[in-house]
Write the structure tokens for this entry.
Amino acid sequence: MRFLILSLAALALVVSWLPSFSVVQAQGLDPQGLVLTASEVPGDLRLARSGTVSRGGGPGYEVFFEVADPFRVGSEAIVQVVNVVALPSDPATGFNDFVRSTQGLFGGLIEQGPLPVGEEGRGYTSSFNAGPFSGSRAVVVFRRGPAVVGVTVSSTSANAPLNEAVQLAQIVDTRLTGAAGGAP
């Protein structure tokens, strides 16, 4: 009887692990190969850090690009781009979790509605003015197949760089579509 219980527990563990493994492996997706590269972000940004992450029970990769020389930043400059690509075990739940964590992390974001990226994409913006200083942020979160992607663009402009965030997200979406062998 003990052997039967242990066998069933082991089988349940293997079965629960297989769906996320098979989707990722079958499509051959590598989050590190899907993120933005230095040549795709504005030229005055440099790679500040990158590394693996775990989101929604699956693998992921994130990159941070920051302004190379903070003392030469103009009033309308993009100062940071962050890109995260994750392969959660459940993409729909992973997408909703990503949106919730984005709202919690940045707070005060205003939803900009559906966006032309991924199978489901949303955009958020925020901005602030403090005397002569202003800043803004645009966040795009989208889902394509098994992947959930986030792109954040921060600027010294009072106008949130949503168009730039969408364009960068579309680069990742195109790469993701090609890697998965599907149509957008």
User: Anything to note?
Assistant: Residues 1-26 have pLDDT under 50 and may be disordered. The domain at 28-180 is CATH 3.40.1000.70 (Protein Transport Mog1p; Chain A).
